[in-house]
Design brief:
InterPro entries: HARBI1-like, HARBI1_dom. GO terms for molecular function: hydrolase activity; metal ion binding; nuclease activity. Pfam families: DDE_Tnp_4 (PF13359). Keywords: Hydrolase, Metal-binding, Nuclease, Nucleus. It is a single chain. By secondary structure, the chain is mainly α. The chain has one domain. Helices cover 43% and strands 0% of the residues. The chain is built from three helices and no strands. α1 crosses α3. It is globular and about 45 Å long.
Amino acid sequence: MSSPVRKDPQQTRGSYVMPFHEKMDYKCQRGFLAPYRGQRYHLQEWRGAANAPTNAKEYFNMKHSSARNVIERAFGVLKGRWAILRGKSYYPLQVHCRTILACALLHNLINREMTYCEDVDDEDEGDSTYIETTNEWSQWHDDLAESMFTEWQLRNA
């Protein structure tokens, strides 16, 4: 993996993706897009032409799962290289965010400027917090899923 930080990240109104676990009940709120419950989610469920999404919620979940996998791999690489990212952070949120950004930038600089980089193992933390839902963000979530699915259908027509 050459870089965990994409050169042209796709941003969506300041939102982010969090790992999805079936046992958790993540809800949409401002800045957080949860996958749709009761719809296929994991990438292995989408393999093969006969398993294409049939509605906007399935399509959104497929893209959400794909993005989650990319993010998990990127953080696995960063955590493998930078010990400060492996444990719990007791720094203020702004310091924590800057630390992650600095680690990603240094990782990319090292990969660009140095010829040797050993592989690192992924690590999983599994920490999560309860997030309350908002109707406004849930509606925006539904509208985004419909728009993504419609565009995908037009491209594949």
